[in-house]
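In the previous lecture we treated proteins in isolation. Real proteins rarely work alone, and many bind small molecules. This record shows how such a complex is specified: first the sequence, then the SMILES for thiamine diphosphate.
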Amino acid sequence: MSSGMKKGSEIIVDVLQEEGVDVLFGFPGGAVIPLYDALYHCPIRHILTRHEQGAAHAADGYARVTGKVGVCIATSGPGATNLVTGLANANMDSVPLVALTGQVATSTIGNDSFQEADIYGISIPVTKYNYLIKDPNDLVRTLKEAFYIARTGRPGSVLVDIPKDIQETRIKYKAVKEVRIPSYHPTMKGHPRQIEAMLRAIKVAERPVAYVGGGVISGGATDELGAFIHSANIPITTTLMGKGSFPEDDTLSLGMLGMHGTRYANYSIYHSDLILALGVRFDDRVAGDVKKFAPQAKIVHVDIDPAEIGKRVNVDIPIVGDLKTVLGQIQGKIKGIERKKWLDQIAQWKKDYPLHYIKEGELKPQYVLECVNAIKNRDLIVATDVGQHQMWAAQYITTKKPRTFISSGGLGAMGFGFPASIGAQVGCPEKTVIVISGDGSFQMNIQELATARTYNIPVKICIINNGYLGMVRQWQEMFCNKRYSQTHFEFNPEFVKVAEGYGIKGKVVRKSEEVLPALEEALSIPEPYLIDFRVAPEENVSPMVPSGKGICEFIEEF
Ligand SMILES: Cc1ncc(C[n+]2csc(CCOP(=O)(O)OP(=O)(O)O)c2C)c(N)n1
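The predicted 3D structure, ligand included, written as tokens:
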């Protein structure tokens, strides 16, 4: 063999190392045997999950907390199709993820070969970009491009499908130093005239509100945001994805807005005369009826993705740009605005309409979340699954730092939380990672208990167990006259026993007074731990604005 020749699979591993990848999440199979062979002696850590969906969500969780690109691997056919939810999930939440899939050999593509699925075609609508490599000489450039596209501009998921013969072919390794994609140049700087217009609008506004989303976190712009909000003295509300972009214990924070947002956040938006929409997309869970969102307000929308601007609402001052750069452009230009009347009004709404629940009776899920929130002296990362528990976590956990609250926002994928918490803990081994899950969501990726055990990934699993697919049950209660069609679990496993079967300790908690001690016990051991909180089965998430309604059209308290 001539020197300098390498197998495609070895080249893949070289590029992963060049890209600084320190961990991979994956699951092997026939079409990736060459790649796994090349990984055998490679210093990159590999976490073997128990399902490819677990690998994709774990890589996603890792990316969310570290800001680096998460990488997952799956084989062709069923391995690749098992990644689809994870690809869609990461892409909808603008998370940088690269998925490497094996494909059947190039000569057999299109023959309905064993374990052949057109993952390139399947993944087009759920990724930012995707590739099927047809020539081994394209490997290096394609992989470099995949990482570049995943992490730049509006981040997202990128899939690279690599036929088995390409992994096996020997070629000469040619380094690619710089990635240049002629048609892809994300705009970083806001247009100076638009920036001027934004500054003028802020100066004359009497009732401004910043409406902030995940773009500020993925853009690394939280310091710039904090400086701007404080100097301009503007109240701020965040989306679920924006939690952590600004400390929620600051007096200017209104918490989360939208369907299950705080009343005072929604009132502030409704009565505002200037909305500064930063790294958000006016999602329908935030702005149900866009006409009733902020009827008196001028809207400034800053986003790196031009496709988001004007998508759901008409914008008065559109600014395409990177949030860190744009907020840098306005830094120090607005100072000393008092806004006493507006801030007093907001303080009054906060006093009149706090988040609340009835504490008496059975163990309340909100109380469990309040106890999680009371955990002190620890650097916490909270991951959630999807459902009522997710909304209670968003409402009751005061998030102060970016990349410490991770949740499936856009796709709302049950099953995300637990594997994502595993990825988060791998990315941040020094932090305490807690996952808030539901009895429904947890069962969607329960097999990852084996992954947590194998690598002793010490995530603390809190199951808010109400015996229902609670969020759907809540809608059935409200809109289907309590016809609970297929939302009651007549059987649930004993989660603690299941955990024990995987070698993981756990506890059932039924009473309020047991909550804090159980959490303390979980935190005291350097291992994964599961707490099965048996909560009031028919508790509802409140407040609530029904789907498609105006931001202040709350359902009466229930
Ligand atoms: C994969 C997937 N399937 C279905 C849904 C629809 N859905 C949204 S919330 C929910 C209930 C979740 O139940 P659970 O995890 O027990 O949480 P709870 O709402 O009870 O807190 C369902 C079924 C979804 N979001 N994701």
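Summary for your notes: The pocket of thiamine diphosphate is lined by residues 385-389, 412-415, 438-441, 464, 466, 468-472 (CB under 6 Å). The chain is about 35% helix and 15% strand.
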